[in-house]
Amino acid sequence: MFINVVNAKKQYGTGEAAVYALDNVNFSLDKGKICVILGPSGSGKSTLLNMLGGLDSLDSGYIEVDGRKITGLSKKALTEYRKKSIGFVFQFYNLIPDLTVEENVQVVEETAQNPLSIDEILKALDIEKYRYRFPKELSGGQQQRVAIARAMVKNPDLLLCDELTGALDTKSSRMVLKFIEQLNREYKTTILIITHNEAIAELADTVVRIKDGKIASVVENAKKSTADEIKL
Amino acid sequence: MKLNKRYLRSIRANLPFYISASVLTMVTLLMFYLFYIAGVGINRYGDEFFSKYNVEDAAFSTFAEIPDEDIARLEKDYGLTLEKEHFAGVEEENFRVRVFSPNKKIDLYELQSGREPISDDEIIISAGYAEENNVQIGDKYLIHGRQYSVAGTFLRPDYLYMVENLSDDYKNVTTFFLAYMTPEEFENQFGSGSINNKVVYSEAADEAGFRREINEKYFMSDYLSADNNMRITFVHEQADMFVMSSWFILVTFPLLTVALVCILLGRRIRAEQKLIGTLSAMGYEKKKLMRHYSVYAVIPGICGGVLTSVAALLLAKPFGSLGLADYEPMKPRFTLPVWVAVAGVVIPTLIYYIAAMLRVRKLLKEDTVKLLAGQIGNNHRSRRVLSHKKASVKSKFALRQLIGNPGRSFVIFLGIFLGAMIVAFAFSFIDSVKAVGEQAHDEFGSFKYEYILNFLKNGAPEDGEAVLVLPYEDKKSRRFSLMGLDSDASLWNLTTVDGQPADIERGFYISTLCEAIYDIHKGDDFTFRNIATLEEYTVKIDGVIKNGYQSYLISSRKNAADLSGLEKDAYNAVLADRALDYSSEEITEIISDTTYKTQMENMMTAMGALISALMIIGMIVCIAALYAMIDTILSENSHNISMLKVLGLENGRINSMIISSNHILLIPGVVLGIASAYAVMAWYCKEFVEVEHIMIPATLYPKSILYTAIITVLSYVISLLLLRRKVDKMDMIEALKDDRE
User: Fold this and answer.
1) What angle do CA B145, B150, B155 make, to 5 degrees?
2) Which of A143, A157, A211, B511 could form a disulfide with B547 if both were Cys (CB 3.0 to 4.6 A apart)?
């Protein structure tokens, strides 16, 4: 099992204002799979992603990634974990505005242990021609591809995508999803996508539905669709 | 307005900024306050003391004693008060004392401790010496063969700055003091002693007529107006220097600091553009928004101003006492004038308020959509720098941060500059005073001793070289020495500033100090007058000799004697390259090659605390300014920092990426700070010429430059260390949620 979440609990606020973002969540995922986590806003899916990425800590329960328990790790160890194993892609890209496309990717490449070739990644994501442009000079879809390139250049074990098509139009969304498929196929990267877009679930090997901080269902897709096939 | 509920929360969230802005405002304003309070306090004390104890307008001596019965007539005829002062100089093994018989009309003393001498074996002594040497009431002193018990201490108005001889440049309270004994005991010990006449002129007094009659009837040997008596003038001159320094400080440091805080405030407000855009979109009126944000700006002004007033009240006395280090232990009232306290609070507050209003107004003129997207101020044209070049991302990012944010870079530069400037100025002060001690005697010449004789002699001395030294004054009654030397004199510096030997047989030369004070140059005519006869003379100046410590007109002994109506081979001073055997009765003063050095060392000891305070202030300014700005940089870069943390970059690497660009600013900041400090010192020294009658060479030794650089860099590092944990504490999730660029 590559990801193993056991009895994960996380509460925000206290007293009457207390909200369980994760309420006894259990689920697991095999290596190299694509998992889509579906749920409405406030269901706890982003919290789960943050926990898996080592950005936040659980109140109780634990999480294992690739056989290593990440719950309870020190800040330094979590930084090392993110550096080595995790790639992040966010809805609003979070690119560094003062750096070009190439430099945004280089920031990560410079610190990675076994980085992929920047040229190869940029070519794969079809943004090679924009390498000297700044984020503001790109469309949303292009920026998201840069964000994916930045996440992938370190050749992560786990790629965490938070509403990666949330800010994109249909055409751009489809293109980004095609690249996600391609990365999974070529680099065998385990990919976890959180979204409230039901259509994206058709790409997944596993679909986890989450509601009010609880796992509502875990379904293995018998027949995956491709990005070209889904109706966005 | 509900919006006002944000105040406390927002202040708490930006506490480091408010603290550092308040500290900056306080520290720089405090410098002004303290110098101002010290200057005004000393001036006021001087005025009151001089008036209460009837300070002299002039002191003079005559070859023939003025009969007591003539005094009342002279007073009536010329509209003045005249008194003969009886005194005696005594040299004992460990000290020299000038003993007085108490005056009744002029230069009266004020008892500082103990009581008046009642019995004949009691004395009272000058308070500065008593304090310096920890003399207690009841201590015994052997003077002129008799033991006296110290009954008390005193101050007198013509000795508030205790120079032993008027040619000295610095006080002596370690081996020299004044003393009073009962009039009967004085007479027993010294008879009538030496006589110095003191005069106070009324507004209608005929000073010139009086001086002429005194010279005609009693033969004036010396006349010293209070304006030329540094024991008196130093009180107001040093106090005026404090006041002048305070205004100089006000128009530099607080002004720069206020500008710096305004820039920081502007950036803080710009960082709130999304909220301002939102509130504007919601229909909040422009005025309300401007008022709301201006209240934030008022905080550092009020806090800084109030803290300054409180600190000034608390520190006025100890700081003022630092300013009193050179004087006799005067006890001025150091008070903070209400208008200064109010202005200190109101002015910076008002400036910050206006700056914030203008910033919000400017933002509200922008497109609301851009405000909502947080796009105002993000047009960095410099982003393209090195975009096609091969260099590390860290270097590219650093360079773009540096030149893409000129306002931010300027504030950091300003913080470094101000800190380096204040610290370098303090070092420069020390170095310049040291330079006087080390260089002064070289400008005098190669003699080891200069003996000033009590009387005129003729011919040539058995040992050494003869000098004729006579006091003269210009039309404004400013004194200088007319010096006459033999043309073969080798012990006095006779090389002009052009590098040529001075031809004193044929011409007249002035010292560089004389040139600076009287604004007379080579080729000019110099008109001056005899202090006794008031007869005027005019000579052409043939050159200038480098000597910034003595104000003199120099020529041959014959020329000087001719002008003064003396025998052509007259002399009253001797230069020697070794100690000569003169008795104490024969000489009034000995100047040695170490005199200046010792005086300057004493000066530095007295001013050490003041200089240290200045250095600490420099460090605080540097740390507070940099702390505020780097804190702002980290806040402005919170999205980038969060993202870099998410990407797995270590805090150290992030810190170095975001902040390292500013390291380069240390170089221009320190270099220009040091250069400016040197320029300010040069200006200060120039002003010093009029006040102290000494040309202090503005000096900054390489060692001091190095120390300034180290202290400034240390301040920079301290500000970084104080912010070290900020990156660590930055919440990755919260910051990323916000990014909608």
Assistant:
1) 115
2) B511
Q: Which residues contact B663 (CB under 8 A, 6 or more apart)?
A: none
Partner B contacted by A103 (CB < 8 A): yes
Give B625 to chain A, closest Cα distance, Å: 25
Q: Do A79 and B732 touch (CB under 8 A)?
A: no
Pick the CATH number of A33-58+68-220 from 3.30.70.1520, 3.20.20.70, 3.40.190.10, 3.40.50.300: 3.40.50.300
Distance in angstroms (rounded) separating the CA atoms of residues B285 and A130: 43
The residue of B637, B646, B730 whose CB has the most chain A CBs within 10 angstroms, and thus the best one to mutate to test that interface, is B646
Residue of B nearest to A51 (CA): B733
pLDDT digits (tens, 9 = 90+) for A99-131: 899 999 998 898 888 888 999 889 888 899 999
Q: Are A113 and A185 in contact (CB under 8 A)?
A: no
Task: Kindly tell me the sign of the dihedral angle through the C-alpha atoms of B185, B191, B194, B196.
Answer: positive
pLDDT for residue B128 is more than 50: yes
Question: Is the CB of A94 inside 8 Å of chain B's CB atoms?
Answer: yes
Closest residue by Cα to residue B266 from B357, B374, B356:
B356
Please report the sign of the dihedral spanned by the C-alpha atoms of residue B641, residue B642, residue B648, residue B652. positive
End-to-end CA distance of chain B: 30
Q: pLDDT at residue B380 above 70?
A: no
Contact B167, B178 (CB under 8 A): no
> Which of B378, B396, B645 minimises the CB distance to A103?
B396
Chain A residues close to B733, C-beta within 8 Å? 50, 55-56
CA distance linking residue B733 with residue B741, whole number of Å: 16
Inter-chain residue contact B643 with A96, CB threshold 8 Å: yes
For B201, the 3-state DSSP assignment is: strand
For chain A, the domains span: 33-58+68-220
